[in-house]
């Protein structure tokens, strides 16, 4: 998941991957909120605070 955020995070692909289509589209059209939203996700994903569309934490790989 972290690799998705690093390489295509500004396009919101990682949010589509976990089922968050609405925020994925917002990130796609704003290029990650001009990079700010991407940086926040870059911090949240490795800390384990990122959840899927049902609010469940992601499994550690």
Automatic annotation (TrEMBL):
- Keyword match Transmembrane helix: yes
- InterPro entries, per this entry? TM2, TM2D1-3-like
- Write down any Gene Ontology CC term: membrane
Ranges of residues in domain TM2: 2-43
Q: List the subcellular locations.
A: Membrane
Question: Which membrane topology describes this protein?
Answer: Multi-pass membrane protein
Pfam families from the entry? TM2 (PF05154)
Q: Does the keyword Ligase apply?
A: no
Ordered alphabetically, the record's keywords are:
Membrane, Transmembrane, Transmembrane helix
Q: What is its main location?
A: membrane
Membrane-crossing residues? 21-40
Q: What is this protein called?
A: TM2 domain-containing protein
Query: Where is the organism placed in the taxonomic lineage, from the top?
Result: Bacteria, Bacillati, Bacillota, Clostridia, Eubacteriales
């Amino acid at each position: 998941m972290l690799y998705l955020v690093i390489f295509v995070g500004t396009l919101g692909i990682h949010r589509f991957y976990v089922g968050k289509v609405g925020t994925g589209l917002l990130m796609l059209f704003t290029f990650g909120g001009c990079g700010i939203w991407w940086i926040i996700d870059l911090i949240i994903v490795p800390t384990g605070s990122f959840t899927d569309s049902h609010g469940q934490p992601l499994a550690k790989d």
